[in-house]
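User: Could you check the structure of this?
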Amino acid sequence: MKKATIIVLFFLLATLTAFITNIDPERQWSQFRGHRSSGFLDDAGLPESWDLNTNENVLWNIEVPGLGLSSPVIWEDKLFITTAVSDSDNDGLKAGIYGSIDPVEDESEHEWKVYCIDKHSGKTIWEQAAHRGVPEQKRHPKSSHANCSVATDGNYVVAFFGSEGLYCYDMDGNLVWEKDFGVLKSTFFRVETAEWEFASSPVIYDGRLIVQCDVMENSFLAVYDLKSGKELWIKERDEYPGWCTPNIYTDNGKVRIAVNGYKHRGGYDFETGEEVWKMSGGGDIQIPTPLVGKELIYFNSAHGPKSPIMAIKKNATGDLTLNEGETSNTYVQWSTPRGGSYMQTMLLYEGLLYNLGWNGRLTCYDAASGERLYEEKLGRASSFTASPVASDGRIYVVDDEGTVYRIKSGKKFEVLSRQKLDDICMVTPAITDGAIFFRTQGRLMAFGKE
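Assistant: Sure, the predicted structure tokens are below.
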């Protein structure tokens, strides 16, 4: 074979290999609610239905030890979840809407674990025990000791267990670095004995790790070098305890960090940590993650007397706090004083904004104007905790009793199907090419076209 031919073949092989191994990060479900917490993945080819009794379109269905509310996170063929395992913590999760703020009394020893699972077969690739001991904080009956979803960029996997530490692994499960922040008091700010556990998931962007810790004492936002764990900056926050995950947006080429809050909702410069804008007001226990659109950032919250939804312009600067009776100002495109959700992150999909309430009331807004298009109640279940996700014109909502509602995306409300998971489900699903994954109280399930 001539040398020139060999060179050409080598070049073609190298080009093909690069093409094959090229990974589009936007098609990876790389953190809580997927890429940038968007909550959707189109062109996924999900099945129209499934049946656990006949195994129709059930790719696999495995048991998960312990208790955890972290959502599945996926990079290529690997799926990651966390859990906290204890022989004594047998109370499980308590579904429903109830007013009790008392935590679960359990002082048994727990083991905090990270699982890497083959997304095609459900078989465990590796597992790591990050920490062992008695939990520093108690949990709410609708909470667990492993609430935070991991974050990954395909090179590293970061798991956050609140007071039990922050852990960075490589994709083969080797511990790269870890951090101990001490006790992070994730309590109800009005009743400090109401310990509910930590729940803000880490976020990875451009080789750096973002952590938001709104707790009873010494709240902060920080950025670390992903490879080494070195602190790049940290900013104190005057904020009540919250459970929201931050998000990333850009304004004229500058990268910002959006954080939800009650006293201190706002935007920070990604490079320096300097505050760009802030505002106060809304629900006084902040949980939903901010959503990023083309020109707007969307926030919601709903605890206490107020439950607003707000659309903030990306070029916002300064103090954006609305005056009494106002629904917009220079940088607040629109807002509605009532209608936000307590637990769920909204869904921004195909120009529409969907908000799911704790009681299953689904409200659809025009994302640009804030016009309410419909408001409908889903099913008869008393409570919904998981956030909605979407794919190929279909919205997936699961109630606490494990019923999955497939809803047609659009300005008119239409439920296409209802499917049973046969277990308590409070975890936001994950989507990848060809499959959707649901985590229930004791199991992890994958549904796809066989």
